[in-house]
Every structure is written in C-alpha cells, then in structure tokens.
Amino acid sequence: MLMLARSCCVHGEPFVGPAGSAFQAAADYLRSCNGHALLVYREGRLVFEDYFNGHTREQPHRLASGTKSFVGVLAVMAVEDGLLQLDEKVSATLTEWQADPRKSRITIRQLLSLTSGVAGGEIGDVPSYREAVKLAEAKFSPGEKFQYGPVPFQCFGELLRRKLVSRKETVEGYLKRRLLDPIGLKVSVWREDAEGNPQLPSGALLTAREWAKFGLLVLNRGAWEGRQLVSEKLLVECFHGTAAHPTYGLTFWLNAADERPRDLVMAAGAGKQKLYIVPSQQLLVV
Q1: pLDDT digits (tens, 9 = 90+) for 59-78
Q2: Where are the domains of the chain?
Q3: Considering the entire predicted model, what is its pTM?
Q4: What angle separates helix 151-165 from helix 68-80, to the nearest 10 degrees?
C-alpha cells in the first residue's frame, strides 16, 4: 500500500519548516492506518521519505491499476513514433471489429479513456490480448459511457502488438526500449497474460522510488535528464477528460474543475496506492 505520508531528503538531512511538520503529520497518520511508504519530490529533488509498518525502500508493491498510466504515456510515445494516431479507428488494425456497428467506430482515444462502449470486464480478471479482442462487447455507442476495467487495455495491447510486427518488436520490448530503460526504471516484476504479453491494466510491481521515476517523467513534461522522450504537446493529451467522465483522461485521474490544484493528475491502484503529480508546484507524491 503506497500512500501519502521521518522526514529526510535524498541526502538524509531533515526537511524542516512548516512543510516538514505537515509531512510528519501525514506520516503519523499513515502509520496508524497501515500505510507503507511516503515519498515527496519537489523540483525534482527527493525531500521527504519514510517507510513503516515493516516495509522498506527495497520492497516492491503491486501497483494494480496504477499500471494503467504507463499505457497512456506509451500510447502518446507511439504517436510520436508514427505507429498510430489517437483518433484513428481501432478497427483499422483490429479488423475483426469492422463488422460491428459500434466497435467499428471506436477510436484509440476512446479505448484508453474507457469511453469506447466496450465493457471493462471483471476487475482482476485479465484476459490475454487476443482473448480481450474476442471478448470485447460494445454495450454502448462510443463516447456515450465510461466503463472501467481491464479489457480495453488488453485490446490496446493487441492493437500495439500488431502495429509492431512490421518493426519486428514486441510490446514488452517497445515498453522497455521506449519508456522504462530511458528513465532507468527497474521493474521488480511485470506480470504476463496467458500468452506471455505484459498485462497492461495491472501487471507492474515496483518499489516506491521506481514508481516515482515514472512520475518525474510526467512532472517534467516528458523530459528526462535533458532529453525529451516524448513531446509535451503529446503528453498533455493524457490529461483531458471526456464528456462521459470529466475526471479521467487517457489512463490518468484528474481533478474536477472546482478542485485545487487544478492541474493535479494521479495514477492510482487498489490498496490506496497513489502517485500524485502537480506540475504547477513541481510536486510529486508517492
């Protein structure tokens, strides 16, 4: 369980002042309710870190649906690489959907914003990519309703798998080469589906610090150590809600219009695991 919450910076020096007191109060609260970790980064620097209730820096956690946000970033990277467009029809690649009056109209953007009309499926029951494509049932017209679950993400996995065939690359290889390796993110485990593909809705197990690396890439608007891994213009596509669900973008949760800070975005998974990103304050919290 990674949640908000001994107050030390990356060099082990105490973070003092009002903010430090607030962090300590959060730590005390989380300790009392079985929290496991708190990391706070400000302007790219780790200013606060604590582990409790028997958990350590080296201990990985299953991110569950916190994994989903990797998919949104990977998708816009694929746009930049010329593999796909967010508003192209999924059925152009998943041709078996072309005969269905609803599924034939679904765009990649709708698939990843969970507004495709395709039923999400049972939480925790992750089909293989090909199974997801076969099982996908369009209960609503595209854009009409938000439906949460693993099936759309595994359908996207099959779409990406087919797109990568001509480049002789796997989804796992593309994920590592394009996103994970450039930021030095070490995955403890990434669970696979029945056909050996990475589970995109919920497969990642990471330490808190490793998850923070992903958050820092987003916080820095797609840049990492002076290198732009994905354009900021494309990355912000992940942070636009829809009419069906204004507070969910492309795999990220968003604040509502009347909530502050307005630009807060979040990756979240079962067990109250949260990755908060606030660009206007250069703030990241795991």
Answers
A1: 999 999 999 999 999 999 99
A2: 1-59, 61-285
A3: 0.93
A4: 30
